[in-house]
What does this fold into?
Amino acid sequence: MDGSDSAFSRIYAVVRRIPRGTVATYGQIARLAGNPRWARVVGYALHANPDPAGIPCYRVVNRDGRLSPAFVFGGLQAQAQMLENDGIALRPDGTVDLERYQWRPNEKTV
It folds into this structure.
């Protein structure tokens, strides 16, 4: 297994833990996966998601709560619909209210 496979595996393990009704940011996933500088790597990993049903990449947004215009599993509208199906109401500008919906795990248990 090369370094990127290991990084992707760690990222996927964290993303699998994001509970329904919450979101996480790319930077948050990077920190929880072990390297706060991996925010872009998180994006690459989610774009290559081998198991969309088991790895809910649609629950990852940017630090401002913006959805991904390049969401690989159907585009921006698909990501918005999936979040709404999870019970996350988007703001009128299409962003997620991170104060309300951001996942706040105990980082020692992730």
